[in-house]
From TrEMBL:
<feature type="signal peptide">
    <location>
        <begin position="1"/>
        <end position="19"/>
    </location>
</feature>
<keyword id="KW-0479">Metal-binding</keyword>
<dbReference type="InterPro" id="IPR003146">
    <property type="entry name" value="M14A_act_pep"/>
</dbReference>
<keyword id="KW-0862">Zinc</keyword>
<feature type="domain" description="Carboxypeptidase activation peptide">
    <location>
        <begin position="32"/>
        <end position="102"/>
    </location>
</feature>
<dbReference type="Pfam" id="PF02244">
    <property type="entry name" value="Propep_M14"/>
</dbReference>
<dbReference type="GO" id="GO:0046872">
    <property type="term" value="F:metal ion binding"/>
</dbReference>
<keyword id="KW-0732">Signal</keyword>
<protein>
    <submittedName>
        <fullName>Uncharacterized protein LOC108044052</fullName>
    </submittedName>
</protein>
<dbReference type="InterPro" id="IPR036990">
    <property type="entry name" value="M14A-like_propep"/>
</dbReference>
Length: 104
C-alpha cells in the first residue's frame, strides 16, 4: 500500500511541476461598456458571452454591460455593435497594461 501512495504522490508532484506556470497575457484585450437599450441588445450580449474564448463579462446591470473582448474578436464585435446600433465606449484599451501597472 505504501508504494502505491508514494507513486501517487510522485505523479501528483510531477503534474504540478509540468503545469504551465507562465501567466496568461491579456495584451490588446479591451474592455467596452455596452449600453443596453432593448431586449434585442440584451440577447446579442448573451450570445456573445457564450463565446468564452473571445468575450468575458466584467460587469452587468440592467442598462450596461462591461465586456472584455479578445484582440481577434474586436473588429467583429465593433462591426456588430454598429450594425445593431448599440452604443459602446472603450473603458480599457489594453488590459495587460492595466495588469502591469497594478503590479508596480
Amino acid at each position: 500500500m505504501r508504494p502505491l501512495i508514494a507513486l501517487l504522490l510522485l505523479i501528483a508532484a510531477r503534474a504540478c511541476t509540468l503545469s504551465d506556470s507562465t501567466p496568461r497575457s491579456y495584451e490588446n484585450y479591451s474592455v467596452y461598456k455596452v449600453y443596453v437599450k432593448t431586449q434585442s441588445d440584451q440577447h446579442i450580449m448573451d450570445q456573445l458571452l457564450e463565446q468564452y474564448d473571445n468575450y468575458n463579462l466584467w460587469h452587468r446591470s440592467v442598462k450596461e454591460v462591461d465586456i472584455m473582448v479578445s484582440p481577434g474578436a474586436q473588429e467583429t464585435f465593433l462591426s456588430l455593435m454598429r450594425k445593431e446600433n448599440i452604443d459602446v465606449k472603450v473603458m480599457i484599451k489594453n488590459v495587460q497594461t492595466l495588469i502591469v501597472n497594478e503590479r508596480k
